[in-house]
Every structure is written in C-alpha cells, then in structure tokens.
Prior knowledge:
By secondary structure, the chain is mostly helical. It has nine helices and no strands. The protein has one domain (20-52, 63-120, 129-209): Transmembrane di-heme cytochromes, Chain C (Fumarate Reductase Cytochrome B subunit, Up-down Bundle), CATH 1.20.950.20. Helices cover 67% and strands 0% of the residues.
Amino acid sequence: MHSPSATAPVTLLPPADHRPIHPVWIRVTHWINALAVLMLVTSGWRIYNASPFFPFQIPSGITLGGWLGGAIQWHFAAMWLLAANGLVYLALNMASGRLFHKFFPLSVSRIWRDAMAALKGNLSHSDPRHYNSVQRFAYLFVMLDIILLVLSGLVLWKSVQFPVLRELLGGYEFARRIHFVAMAALVAFVAVHLAMVALVPRTLFTMLSGKAGLKS
C-alpha cells in the first residue's frame, strides 16, 4: 500500500528567466540619449540667454558653450547625436515588438489608478520587466516631446527651407516658444526620472548591467 506522499502530484516551478531585463541595445541607446539631452539642454540654455523672451535668464554656470557661437556648435552636435540615436532606438523597439509589448495597453483609468497608488506609496516595483501605467505614459510622452523638439528645432535652424512646418508651428517666434516649453517638459521628465531612481536605486543597476539588481 502506497503512502499518500508517494502519489501526491509534484508541482513544477516555471524555469527562471535569465534574460537581461534590458538588452544591450536598450542600455547603449539610453545612455547616449542621456548624454545628448544633457548637451542639448545646457547649450540650449546658453542660446536662450542670448535672446530671452521670458523675464528671466538661465544661470550661466549651468550652461554649455561659453558663448553663443560655441553653444550653437554644441547644440548642433548634440542634435545630430540625439536624432540618429533616437531613430535607432525607435526602429529597434518597433522591429523587436518591444514598443507595443512594453508601453501598451494604456488608458486614462490605468494611469490614474497607478498615479494614486504611487502617491500613497503602494505602487509595486517587484517586477522590473513590467512598466506600470505611469511609466508607460511618461516614456511615451518623452518620445513625443523629443519629436516636437526636433521639429521645432528644424524651424529654428532652417526656417526658410521648412515653410510649411514653420506655419504649422505658428511662425518662427512661436516655434521658439514651443521649443523652449518642450525643453522644459524634457527637463521636468528627467528630474522626476532621477527622483524615481533615487527611490528605487536598483533601476540604475538594471540599466547599467541589464540584470535585476538588489531589491529596494
């Protein structure tokens, strides 16, 4: 006669997923984007100071370029870096299916639910492979914001060559304001992003190594 333990069904655990949280191409393009954004923002502040349209200027100590001509050179160099790297990032995201898998589905109700949970400190970060709805919205927003930065930047750079785009953006002077506001939105995103990294530091190790890192 067999004992009950001898005939009990055996529960098999699913195999551990040893794939990196972020593939190499994500980590490389992420850090190149970070460098390009830093150069663009700080050189852009120097360019803005040469002809401000708001009643304030950016402290020169946190700008890049030293003078208007130098800032423009830095800005153009960073622009090409961001545009080329951004195209690679978008192309690989779409080709791999990651864009739709990571950032969709998305709805206002899900964003609101996760935002309220985050404010109450109840939003889980246990699965680094999964983006919550607030993260999905933020990353999609910054992608669109960078596209707006590039389009408005084209108007400021080659206004005569892009007359239709210039008119769609309300003319040259209004495009300057759009460019500045889009830059401010990008800076706000970076500030929130850095705050989240400080609260969940293992996300930094994940983006450096591709592995999950220590639990927060």
